[in-house]
Amino acid sequence: MDDEARGGRLQERVVEVQRLLEKHRMLEVVASRQDTPKSALLEQMQHRQNLAELQRRLRGLHPADLAHLLESLPIDDRLVVWRELTPALAGPVLVEVTREVRESLIEQTEPSTLAAALRELDADDLRYLAESLPDELVDEVSALLDAHDRSWVEQSRAFPPDSAARLMTQDLLSLDDSWPAAEATAVIKRRGQLPSHTDRLFVVDARKVLVGSVSLGALLIAPGEAPLAAIMDTDIRRFHPYDDAAVVATAFERYDLLSAPIVDDRGKLIGRVTADAVMDFIRASSTNDVLSLAGLRKAEDLFAPVWDSATNRWPWLAVNLATAFVASRIIGAFESTIQHLVALAALMPIVASIGGNTGNQTVALIVRGLALDQIRPGASAVHLLRKELIVSLLNGLLWGTLVGLFAGIVYGSAPLALVMSAAILLNLVVAALVGVFVPLGLERLGRDPAQGSSVILTFVTDGMGFFLFLGLAHLFLVRT
Amino acid sequence: MDDEARGGRLQERVVEVQRLLEKHRMLEVVASRQDTPKSALLEQMQHRQNLAELQRRLRGLHPADLAHLLESLPIDDRLVVWRELTPALAGPVLVEVTREVRESLIEQTEPSTLAAALRELDADDLRYLAESLPDELVDEVSALLDAHDRSWVEQSRAFPPDSAARLMTQDLLSLDDSWPAAEATAVIKRRGQLPSHTDRLFVVDARKVLVGSVSLGALLIAPGEAPLAAIMDTDIRRFHPYDDAAVVATAFERYDLLSAPIVDDRGKLIGRVTADAVMDFIRASSTNDVLSLAGLRKAEDLFAPVWDSATNRWPWLAVNLATAFVASRIIGAFESTIQHLVALAALMPIVASIGGNTGNQTVALIVRGLALDQIRPGASAVHLLRKELIVSLLNGLLWGTLVGLFAGIVYGSAPLALVMSAAILLNLVVAALVGVFVPLGLERLGRDPAQGSSVILTFVTDGMGFFLFLGLAHLFLVRT
After folding, report:
1. What was the ipTM of the complex prediction?
2. Same domain for A454 and A386?
3. Do residue A352 and residue B357 have CB atoms under 8 angstroms apart?
4. Are A282 and A372 in contact (CB under 8 A)?
């Protein structure tokens, strides 16, 4: 199948689904207005036909495409599509959608329907979904698994949300280091198929302790009599289930891994992480930084119900507002100064604004540097601070002079120009200090540096901007 | 090798390198103060010993770890380490470092030294570096490649920066669809090794047109006499070199791919993309959104020289400042109103600030939605707009009332409270409109929605915030 054709076909199918959804909406409206029983029956028939057609179309889509379709549909349409999915599709789709959409779907679904969908999943998928599901439901569904899988689901629920365990799959085949290559190949042949996303197999000793790995290529190439211990790679990156998922992701990126083993405290092989799970993790954690910096508490479904969206945005708005009150009181303290020279009121937001902008540039760089693990405590932090201070001095001199000139020309006052320039210079220095120290400080406190940095920074640059400008004006312009 | 031990050892080695760098700096200082020739000689010897020790330590590190070390070192130390690298290490390190650090290293290195390092690289790596390198140097080094590799480097330089071609490697082994499995295995054995990151091999017909793929696992399991055409997977996602790299990344994420083929216009196999390149791309493009939203023109080396950093930040600061001037003139137009009621000066930044904050939350959600390809033109954009408007009305009523109460109590004026509440409500509606339309508009114009959205938004919410508040105050409070 050619990919352009596929891409085209996918697009066509999605458009077709959307057409059916529109018809569905129209029929619902008509049905609600129905008065004569006869036409009601007719409409009902049409309605059913339409849904049957929709169901047929949906079955032709890959679960990942369905997941993506659900993510980009408004809530009502999303639920129509979701309810038309057979359990065999609904299960995998639930695994594929983003967490926030998953939670909205779970909330809207009967436990019995949900259970039917979950029964279609293997232990790994169930474990992955467990944190979004009601405990009883997980217990109910995992009771149907065999003992090994059940205990796997049980165990994994104990690991923290951002641990390597959450990226792990138990679906693996391990080889015995005493086997020759031919024996390993025979075992694989008997098994009939390899776990998905297998580029290499892990080799364990008699105690199940991980001792190496063999790429499938090496196994294909090796002479049949070569012992695995001789052809295996012993220099492998391994992780523990309670390792930070971010550490695993960094290792995958840095050492170009496609898969890596997870071992327990005694070095025994218990699972495997593959690059596809890591890609999803990298995307999710990076896009969450964008949201955190903008003051959103958690990732938000684009089409979330209004109330959910609003409450997700409130905590940081409340903090923001509290800081804006403080800034307002700072200005309030200088009311007599402003009364004296009302031009100050027009100019003061410029000082605050340029402070906030330069500071946020610094915050973004530091947050990114922390995400890429490029900032070491000590030496490099000091160096960063020095550099940002010099950049802020340079910016302060340049933009301070420019803004001062503007103010001087508009209001025809050289002293006003000087006060403006000085206030900007000082506020940019403050912005650099805060921009470096706040994210580093949050990180050191074990908090997400993206969450809150920007708010604290804006608070300081607004407050200090007003204070520096009005204070200097009070000292040098008004008291004459 | 146990990973904790390895992690510990890596950490130790890095610390050791840093110790040697400190000693190096100290010796440099001492050398510059030197007066007696005898002690100068002694210092020089120490200096050389120190560098030799450093070089020895560096050789023990993986190129990816060295790259990471360079990224997290201040510029001076970075150059000391860089210069101690042998060409055999310097080449791979150059491939591993981030683009901005790579460019700083290339700038600081003699062409002849650079050429020595580049000669250690294969055609794929050279091609990857080509866009950061002077053309003459690429020509010089690629002249040493064989004809096939040389034309590969040539061709790939023609592809645009963010195309699939930039993620592609030519290092692949293709199988002939007429072969039985045993023949394929024999070919692989004769070749002696498979290209790195191979989870599956691509199958071509007699005209070299891609017809399917065989996972290594399937090849291991298949009976020797089974024809490849029978065991291969024909339903594969394939890409063209001029496809958007973001499209390739999305497909890898969505369909959990570890590798995918690149074909030319006639369907002939020309290369391969592997998940390790895609992981790096996802990380880079996501972290760049963080920087763009904060108003940085391009990714900036944390330890870039001051001048480079400053100029990278100027374009958006200049735009910001221009908009702040406009906002300032809006306030200026109401100077007589403020003169009349100076409390307005203290309260107006609150209106602007809450507008900016709610608007930026919307911008962040839309930018993320666009990055995840969740927003379809038409239906879902309308729905998003409606939802954001309702959220903004809700927020406006809540926070408007709250802030109004605050203003009413502080200044003891009910009319002032009402004006404040109304201005906030209206400004939040403006923020929602701008927050939705600006990123969508930039995207439709084929521009990066993250770049500039935030600046335009703040401009509107500041300007409108001041205008609405002071205008309403002028109408209802001052004219009495």
Report:
1. 0.86
2. yes
3. no
4. no
